[in-house]
Amino acid sequence: MCRFLAYAGPPVFLDELLVRPSASLIAQASKAREAKTAVNADGCGVGWYGERSEPGLYRGVLPAWSDANLVSLCRQIRSRLFLAHVRAATFGEVATANCHPFAHGRHLFMHNGQVGGYERLRRRMDALIPDDLYAARKGTSDSEALFLAAVGQGLDRDPVGAIARTLRDIVALARDAGEADEPLRFAAVHTDGETLHAYRWASDGNPPSLYCREEGEGIVVASEPCDEGSGFWTPVPSGTLLTVERRSGARLRMFDPLAEEAERRVRAA
Amino acid sequence: MCRFLAYAGPPVFLDELLVRPSASLIAQASKAREAKTAVNADGCGVGWYGERSEPGLYRGVLPAWSDANLVSLCRQIRSRLFLAHVRAATFGEVATANCHPFAHGRHLFMHNGQVGGYERLRRRMDALIPDDLYAARKGTSDSEALFLAAVGQGLDRDPVGAIARTLRDIVALARDAGEADEPLRFAAVHTDGETLHAYRWASDGNPPSLYCREEGEGIVVASEPCDEGSGFWTPVPSGTLLTVERRSGARLRMFDPLAEEAERRVRAA
Amino acid sequence: MCRFLAYAGPPVFLDELLVRPSASLIAQASKAREAKTAVNADGCGVGWYGERSEPGLYRGVLPAWSDANLVSLCRQIRSRLFLAHVRAATFGEVATANCHPFAHGRHLFMHNGQVGGYERLRRRMDALIPDDLYAARKGTSDSEALFLAAVGQGLDRDPVGAIARTLRDIVALARDAGEADEPLRFAAVHTDGETLHAYRWASDGNPPSLYCREEGEGIVVASEPCDEGSGFWTPVPSGTLLTVERRSGARLRMFDPLAEEAERRVRAA
Amino acid sequence: MCRFLAYAGPPVFLDELLVRPSASLIAQASKAREAKTAVNADGCGVGWYGERSEPGLYRGVLPAWSDANLVSLCRQIRSRLFLAHVRAATFGEVATANCHPFAHGRHLFMHNGQVGGYERLRRRMDALIPDDLYAARKGTSDSEALFLAAVGQGLDRDPVGAIARTLRDIVALARDAGEADEPLRFAAVHTDGETLHAYRWASDGNPPSLYCREEGEGIVVASEPCDEGSGFWTPVPSGTLLTVERRSGARLRMFDPLAEEAERRVRAA
């Protein structure tokens, strides 16, 4: 399990959301309240959009609370769109390449959850990554494999469909591998630098916590409220997708990657 | 605050005491039960005596639970005398040079506690280190300064007296600096490779926790019991010094570095 | 390219071979003389056999010359069989998981050379690793993939045959992938804790440098001589395998993994 | 010895000067041409001014060429004033706290050179740091001590005078300590976020190399030319100070911190 925070809206300094709040993401590294593991000290990372089309990326293996570089960057960088993450390793060593967010071209992705039985499914998940993307596989985590598989599924032109197809594929391969009992739990944020998508879904109906809040004219999405007065935080319902777009603002809709498959089965029957 | 464990006795593999127990030191890195801070993830270290007169030393900045080197070393090394430590930084960056144990010649030292007001006393404490030892100052922690000051006080030929004089000096300089209200809390282990000294003392009568236990024909000293069935662990009383020698075994005696000073004052009055 | 050194014989302290010589492996990290790259500062590692059946393993990402842990370990550990390596990354991030030696059960392996076109062959090479070993893949280097593939080929019961078959497989898949022009260059050491095998071979007849020398009653194998008076170092010829066994001592023989294939083709024709 | 580069002028992306040139600072980390040591791989750092009054700071212990964070930051950050440094440690462990640049309030400082005999002078140099700045001493390098001493000498209101007095003090204490034969060599850049000062001076007339070049309407100062066509680089003469101000542009003048003292002696005689 891990903890994360994302923001989309008018440019803000990152430290306003990541460092200053009483229960900031950095504080959650040592004392998360709604995570399976209170300690999320297996590395940290931040990705942000500035003047380039591709995002900036900083990742490190130290616990967030002792990473002076992270704090200095958060204080300097002002961004209209950024993702930040503190990791509690499930599978995959503590290594920079296993820290979130993951970047590919103009895309950023981060994940909190688990691919049940990943240790046994890893090779099959790697097989979901297309040949031409395989060189981009730098670490050994389930999250990076999931992201690259989604890139291969067309994240660029059909972001939600690509994520849905990837989750469906993983559920299918777990079932084929006799790991059907192992749940796929997925709280994640993906962005192409313009639109932000935040997902909360699990194959067993029990996804990790996810909240959102208005921040001025922007939107914050986070694993858990990051300030004490958490009155303004709204839980994101299980099985939904929160989309934040520059023009049209935030929108919540149902998200069930298995639905289409269920539908297909009905038709096939 | 930090957590530590030391052993003296017939040679044992380090992992028997540091890795395998249910509440091992490595487990305490993320979940200590009797420490001020449950998380002790600001680095770790182990020092041991093998075939050389001076000890081996391994220290790293990652949390102990994700340090594969530490686990491999503990599994390979068998030693009659070793010290191990997981750090929760109070003052001094997360850096190898600030990790315990500290080594000097054939001596090893580790500490759990605090020098109250250290941030303001640091220069005065550095001044306690003799000129010829100052080049050995590699980090910025209070514990290293205390150790080098004690080396300067004659740790080699009068180990207990040197520690006592150093603690007395620190209490005096805190008083002179108007920091008398800040307590000096000291749970520590020092060894010259033959005799092990474990101290538990505080200027305000409130030292960090310390326990000991027989382990076969050897003795274990630890910040807190490292297995669930903690029936055999004996608390080391506040204001005492536990000495373990090869021939004469373990011995507990009173330790009050300020007593001599009190005596002096009485005489002077 | 990288530099390495291995030793088999009566127990010696590691620092005698790794630290003290004027052109020691640690010195070669910043100034190798016979390597493609003079700087080999992308991490370092040492594996050794002690009292356990499986080896100890220490690996770190800092350049060897600034790794105080490495020096302390080398000074403490005395071993009858050890491997040491300093890395110059070709493919694979600077990360602990990409540092040599690699360990699997009681086996140790390290490599200096290249799998030509690896970036394009990586997926195919990963496919050489059997399913039940895939979870042991921790990094992204060609060397680790080669090692795990060899484990899958039966390194345990037929060490030389397993390496030969693996090299043959890699040459074949490179040919199939249209990378036949890219050479496979292989200077490597493998041991199961008893017998040491040092290989020097390349598909284009141009393998990395490799030397050996008697050290008392033991044998040292190294990428290049590690002392100035290099008179006693013997170059290991290209296309040979040096085997060191406890009882029978050192033996040099021809090694051409493609020979059997050539033979097979002749037969098939 | 180390290598560095600084820029002042219209905002540019950092990678244009630090990453893209054929002999960029990152390339100099493994292959400097005019440094005492060709390898400058003991850490790296960059400090820059953005929207805040105090600078951003990124420092890491890995060699610059393998630091993906450094490259990403250089690609994202656009700045009118920045300093970058790759380190070859003389004294002071490889640790983040010993990496340049050093920051204090709105000041940045970096140094290439040596305080001769520093290991023996260290305590005396620490004594040059005023009490209220001593808590800001995070590492053990001569450069950080020199910088904090200069802050204490009034770097804020009299930048050049403060540096001159500090250098004079160090020369004096070296003389008093019987280290007069050990040279003080000083190529350094200091800035308060507005004006950039680049110094090249040595007590033995033999300072490290330093060059400058026009870059559009800005000025680059560097230890050595960072592109092959080095025709436009001008050597900064020994014993001079290059000052770059927003309004008045670049100006070169004599700099001899000992001159005033010589003068004083003449007067006193």
Describe it for me?
Chain A is built from eight helices and 13 strands. Chain A is of the alpha+beta class and 269 residues long. Chain A has a single domain (3-113, 186-268), classed as Glutamine Phosphoribosylpyrophosphate, subunit 1, domain 1. The mean pLDDT of chain A is 92. Chains in contact: A-B, A-C, A-D, B-C, B-D, C-D. Chain A binds chain D through residues 48, 50-52, 55-60, 68-69, 72-73, 75-78, 96, and chain D through 48, 50-52, 55-60, 68-69, 72-73, 75-78, 96. Chains A, B, C, D: Residues 2-247 form the Glutamine amidotransferase type-2 domain. Chains A, B, C, D: Keywords: Glutamine amidotransferase, Transferase. Chains A, B, C, D: It holds the Pfam family GATase_4. Chains A, B, C, D: It comes from Plantimonas leprariae.
In short:
4 copies of one chain form a homotetramer. Chain A is built from 8 helices and 13 strands.
**Helix-strand string of chain A:** EHHEEHEEEHHHHEEEEEEEH
The CATH superfamily of chain A bears the name Aminohydrolase, N-terminal nucleophile (Ntn) domain
CATH class of chain A: Alpha Beta
CATH architecture of chain A: 4-Layer Sandwich
Broad structural category of chain A: alpha+beta
Biggest sheet architecture of chain A: 7 strands, antiparallel
Query: Radius of gyration of chain A over alpha carbons?
Result: 17 Å
Percent of residues of chain A in beta strands?
Answer: 25-35%
**Shape summary of chain A:** globular
Instruction: Count interface residues per chain for the largest interface.
Output: A-D, 19 and 19 residues
Note the quaternary state here.
homotetramer
| Low-confidence regions of chain A | none
- What is the fold-level CATH name, i.e. the topology of chain A? Glutamine Phosphoribosylpyrophosphate, subunit 1, domain 1
Overall tally of domains of chain A? 1
- Which strand order do you get reading across the main beta sheet of chain A? 3-2-4-1-10-9-11
> Kindly state the mean pLDDT of chain A as a whole number?
92
Helical stretch count of chain A?
8
Q: How far apart, in Å, are the first and last alpha carbons of chain A?
A: 38 Å
How many individual β-strands of chain A?
A: 13
The helix content of chain A is: 25-40%
